[in-house]
Each structure stands twice: as C-alpha cells, then as structure tokens.
C-alpha cells in the first residue's frame, strides 16, 4: 500500500539549533516528493519539491531536503532554526497516477 | 493573486444535517484534491479529480460523503447526514498536474463542527 511515514511526531528545539525531520515513503514506480509547512491556523504552503535531477533540493526559508532513493527517504533539514519556524511540517509523495498522500506531520516547536 | 477559495470557512451544524463545502480552484488548474485534517488522523485524502473526472475517492466514506465537480470552477464535498466524527478541517487543493509533476495550492480550509 502507498504510504508516507514521518518519524517524529513532535520536535522541540532551541533557536539556532539544526533541524532534521525524517520522511520515508512506500510507493511503487516513479514518485515525486514534497514538503509542506502549516503555520498555526493557516493552510499548507509548499516548502520544496523533488521531481528529478539533483537529489539535494533547496526550498524557501533556508530549508533543504535530500532524496535518497535507496533508502526511500526524503528528509528535511535546516542548519539553524528560528522561532518563526514553529509550525507543522508535512512530507508528501505523489505517483504517476497523480495520487498525493501526506505523512502524519511533525510538529516543530522552537523555543526563543 | 490567484488562490484556491473555500466556503464556508467555518460551519457548526447538528448531527443529521446536510453539509456542503465548496471549492473554487485556481483558473486553469486541471486537478482538484479534497483532504480532511484531524488531530488523530492527520491529512487524509478523501477524493481527487483530474479534468473534472473523479480519479480516486477510496478515502471517502461512500455512504454519507459525495464529491463532485459540476464545472471547472467549482468542486463540492457533501456530507449527508453529518455525524460528530466528521468534525474536522476540510482542505481543497488545486494544481496544474501532468502525471505526478506539478504543484498543489491549498485553500484556507473549511472548519466543520458537528454537534
């Protein structure tokens, strides 16, 4: 069955700490991958996406993600988080049929 | 600034009532998704459409939920009869998709509370 798993339910960091959020997917065939962010009370916004090419993808607000095909992973990273990064982060995968499925989400709390 | 528009933003209703949520996708987008977000289940895919045709609605409880796209500018999600467990935020998203490539844009969501 197609699925997306996010390892961490809730992550708490201090400002300036480095961030890595795990994401693994289970999909047959070609898959494209996304990370979305949802700030409190708001809708989802795209952080970055991977379709092909360089497996290290740079997104907005200093985020990046690395696609490792052999590990079925697409982890999100940021070298130094800010209080304003407090939000929920969703990994998502879409297959050739166009079905986009999200992981359970990781809530990030950044302490000032 | 193009955006996905959802109505109503908030809805409180009583169990057994019919609820209809509407979504206006971004003009020119060919794919529309409906998701339901709850604390317990996260973001669940309910249904999605490509060029107005339903591609997959396996995530939707068929006995009470229905999703349609009467035209390219309107997608609807209907619950009849509604139950307290349907309380959630329902998101619509649209995108110009070709196979698996493309980007989805999300609406602000419709927060439904069923008493």
Q: Cα distance, first to last residue of chain A?
A: 41 Å
User: Largest chain-chain contact?
Assistant: A-B, 25 and 23 residues
Distance from first to last alpha carbon of chain B: 36 Å
Report the top-level CATH class of chain B. Mainly Beta
Annotation, overall tally of beta strands of chain A? 12
Output mean pLDDT of chain B.
Answer: 93
Indicate the percent of residues in helices of chain A. under 10%
What is the alpha-carbon Rg of chain B in Å?
13 Å
β-strand percent of chain A reads over 45%
Characterize the main sheet of chain B: 7 strands, mixed
The chain-level mean pLDDT of chain A equals 92
The H/E string of chain A reads EEEEEEEEEEEE
Shape descriptor of chain A reads globular
How would you summarize what this structure contains?
With 112 residues, chain A is an all-beta fold. Helices cover 0% and strands 56% of the residues of chain A. Chain B is mainly β and 115 residues long.
What does this structure look like?
The complex is a heterodimer of chains A (112) and B (115). Chain A is mainly β. Chain A has strands spanning 3-6, 10-14, 19-21, 23-26, 31-38, 44-50, 56-58, 64-68, 73-78, 87-95, 100-102, 106-111. In chain A, strands 2, 5, 6, 10, 11 and 12 form a 6-stranded mixed β-sheet that branches. A 4-stranded antiparallel β-sheet of chain A has the order 3-9-8-7, with no helix packed on it. The relative contact order of chain A is 0.34. The radius of gyration of chain B is 13 Å and the shape is globular. Chain B starts with a strand and ends with a strand. The model of chain B has no long low-confidence stretch (mean pLDDT 93). Chain B has strands at residues 5-7, 10-13, 19-24, 31-38, 42-50, 53-56, 65-71, 74-79, 88-95, 104-106, 110-114. In chain B, the strands form 2 sheets. In chain B, strands 2, 4, 5, 6, 9, 10 and 11 form a 7-stranded mixed β-sheet that branches. Chain B is mostly beta strands and 115 residues long. Chain B has a single domain (5-114), classed as Immunoglobulins (Immunoglobulin-like). Classes of the chains: A mainly beta (112), B mainly beta (115). Chain A binds chain B through residues 30-32, 34, 36, 42-46, 49, 51, 90, 94-105, and chain B through 31, 33, 35, 42-43, 45, 48, 50, 55-56, 91, 93, 97, 99-101, 103-109.
């Amino acid at each position: 069955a197609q699925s997306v798993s996010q390892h961490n339910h809730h992550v708490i960091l201090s400002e300036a700490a480095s961030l890595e959020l795990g994401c693994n997917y289970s999909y047959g065939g070609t898959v494209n991958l996304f990370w979305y962010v949802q700030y409190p009370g708001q809708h989802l916004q795209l952080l970055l996406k991977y379709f092909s090419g360089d497996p290290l993808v740079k997104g907005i607000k200093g985020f990046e993600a690395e696609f490792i095909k052999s590990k079925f992973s697409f982890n999100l990273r940021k070298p130094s988080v800010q209080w304003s990064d407090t939000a929920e982060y969703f990994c998502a995968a879409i297959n050739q049929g166009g079905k986009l499925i999200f992981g359970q989400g990781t809530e990030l709390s950044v302490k000032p | 600034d193009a955006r996905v528009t959802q109505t109503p933003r908030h809805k409180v209703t009583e169990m057994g009532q019919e609820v209809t949520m509407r979504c206006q996708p971004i003009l020119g987008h060919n794919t529309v998704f409906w998701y339901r977000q709850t604390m317990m289940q996260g973001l669940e895919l309910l249904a999605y459409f490509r060029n107005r045709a339903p591609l997959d609605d396996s995530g939707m409880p068929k006995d009470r939920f229905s999703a349609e796209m009467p035209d390219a500018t309107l997608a609807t999600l209907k619950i009849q009869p509604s139950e307290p467990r349907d309380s959630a935020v329902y998101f619509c998203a649209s995108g110009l998709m070709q196979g698996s490539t493309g980007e989805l844009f999300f609406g602000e969501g419709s927060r439904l509370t069923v008493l």
